[in-house]
Amino acid sequence: MCPWRASAFLALLAPGIWIAWQWATGMLGPEPVKEAIHGTGLWAVRFLLASLAITPLRWLSDLPQLPYLRRQLGVGSFCYAFTHLLLFVLDQNLDLPKAVLEIVQRFYLTIGFVALLGLGALAWTSTDGWTRRLGRDWKRLHRLAYPIGVLAILHFFLQSKADVSEPVFVSGLFLWLMLWRSLPDGVSRRPLAAFLLAPAAALGAAGVEYAWYALATNIPAGLVLAANLDLTFGPRPAVWVGIASLGLALLVTLRRVAR
After folding, report:
1. What is the mean pLDDT of the chain?
2. How many angstroms separate the CA atoms of 22 and 153, rounded?
3. 16 and 119 both lie in a single domain
4. Whether residues 51 and 95 fall in one domain
5. Between these two residues, 118 and 186, which has the higher pLDDT value?
6. Which of 69, 126, 161, 174 lies 20 to 30 A from 47 at CA?
7. What's the sign of the alpha-carbon dihedral 219, 221, 222, 226?
8. CB atoms within 10 A of CB 176
9. Of the candidates 36, 11, 41, which has an alpha carbon nearest to the alpha carbon of residue 23?
10. CB 212 within 8 Å of CB 164
């Protein structure tokens, strides 16, 4: 196994090992199953975004090794999502009919399950054999990662309830990835594009956060939006999206200058 793939494999295993260690040592608190459910779901979303980030990073950084990691990250996302489901069934006292009924009756569980099925289809067809068998249809099928990402983030929002800091941050990064893909090839491969997309993604994340509080809660959405300009209690998630995006653009620029 090449160093890149070995490193990616270890990185995929690390969160699961850490969650298991916390559970075994009582660090997950009085409801370890629920905490493990949250943790595995969070890492499923993170690895899905990481797999979607491979393409822009490949073209912006000129690192030919990166495409080999996409498959591992995508399969890793499915594995964490499937573990997320198994832990949910465990939380239902292994009562499978009850778990199925919950998934059918609760909208946020339904869309999460649909996202899991989509990830399963992508993981199953990620092998070299399926790539050859499907031909051009393989790329069309794997573009389902985009709507799957939307469903996964919506599921994240709905189960987070009032505090949606993490889903807002994730949605901002997802928006950056989708905006990058909407650019013409000649533009998207330039470091300047990464700089220009940073404020767009940050504003988009702030807009998503505003819409969530306005439509789904009784919390004054205008005050939440205005809080993005007040750093007294630290940066808001949308600000962190801008910082992360600008950091990426800066790293890409420095790499190209160094070369």
Report:
1. 89
2. 25
3. yes
4. yes
5. 118
6. 161
7. positive
8. 26
9. 36
10. yes
How far apart are alpha carbons 175 and 170 in whole angstroms? 9
Q: What's this model's pTM, rounded to 2 decimal places?
A: 0.91
Q: How far apart are CA 34 and CA 57, in angstroms?
A: 34
Full domain range(s) for residue 248: 163-259
Which of 129, 144, 160 terminates a domain? The answer is 160
Kindly compute the dihedral angle of the four CA atoms of residues 171, 177, 134, 132, in this order, to the nearest 10 degrees: -130
Gap between the Cα atoms of 60 and 192, Å rounded: 10
Tell me which residue has tokens 């793939």: 5
Span 217-221, average pLDDT: 86
Distances (CA, A) of 26 to 20, 22, 37, 89, 133: 10, 6, 15, 21, 47
